[in-house]
Prior knowledge:
Layout: E1 2-8, H1 11-26, E2 31-37, H2 39-43, E3 47-51, H3 60-65, H4 67-83, E4 88-92, H5 95-107, E5 112-115, H6 127-134, E6 137-140, H7 145-151, E7 156-158, H8 163-166, H9 173-179, E8 187-192, H10 197-215, E9 220-226, H11 232-242, E10 247-250, H12 254-260, E11 263-267, H13 270-278, E12 282-286, H14 290-297, H15 307-312, E13 319-321, H16 327-339, H17 341-358, H18 364-377
Parallel strand pairs: 1-2, 1-4, 2-3, 4-5, 5-6, 6-7, 8-9, 8-11, 9-10, 11-12, 12-13
Helix pairs in contact: 1-18, 4-5, 5-6, 9-12, 10-11, 10-16, 16-17
Amino acid sequence: MKNILIVAAENSAVHYGSKIIDRFSESEHEVSFFGAGGDDFAEKKVELIVHSRELSIVGIVEVLSSLFRMKKIMGKLLNSAIRKKADAAILIDYPDFNLRLAKKLKKAGIPVYYYISPTIWAWRYSRVKIIRKYVDHMFIIFPFEKKIFERENIPYTYTGHPLIPSIKITKSKESFRRSLKTARDEKLLAVLPGSRLSEVGSLLPEMLKTVEILRSELNLRVVILKADNIDLNILKKFIEDSGTEAEILDQKERYNLFNASDAALASCGTSNLELGICGLPFAAVYRVNKLSYLLGRGFLNISLYSIVNILSGKEVVPEFIQREFTAENCARAVSGLLKDPDRSEKQKNEFKLLKKKLTPGSSPSDIVYNKLEALIFSKNKLITK
């Protein structure tokens, strides 16, 4: 029996981790997983030492204010790994936490495998030194990252992006719109306020103001996508306080929602790539604590924020960051997408090119599993690219 620590703090990471757990469950190997994750992990019999909602923070100031709590959580995971004599640790994304944890695990003699590299290409390149020292093998998802890890002499495996094969649309556009009671003359707008409580608190009120402006000129139906670790009542309270109308939809239906919608207003993050792959035109927004933004700007190597724009090397989707994130700016951009077919089509064409660039030859979860199997179960544990 192998004991494996797995740490996934965010919705997307939990989803990717679940795929890896499934592959181990289907194998002949006896493996017991424990660590940090969401409800999906619990359903797969992962022993949750920490629920992912406890790790839901964003921004430098917010992180600093939660240092004691995060240190305590890290200690719980480390102590569990030592007590259970973990054979390996699989850390997924969430670099500010996971790189620190990697250092402690490595010092405890536990091999560390990291899935989805920190965005060293975007900011804080110096983290590459930590990766080289404390991560045994890195799994990268973007093709341009290969050059970085080859140059830095860090063992890696390129997997392709795990989003693409995991996106499944199960209902037709027409049937899903009917299930939402969306009339034929209504425009369906998806609103994605983020997967962290701090994001929702910072972004959703202004998003709802945007909705009110759009309703003054369009026949609009609005659906807010709820992240798994966000309490439903919190979203309901924001809607109630805004005085606007909006439905709330569970994450499990997100791809059907993207397929059925006419446009989206979304926080910057993994969801931007999901929207692009699904071909839904959108505008991206983000806002953090002002001090967090000022402190973080000095570490940035990029001028674009949405992952769709970063990967495309240009502004494919309009993005409104910090002071530019106003209801008026967002309404103008979303209104253009809803009223101007040429503007929407231009985004869709760019999305097709991006999807082609990121499509792997094999299933990313299969690639990760096969490599992990060799690293964890092979006596020689040869590391190849």
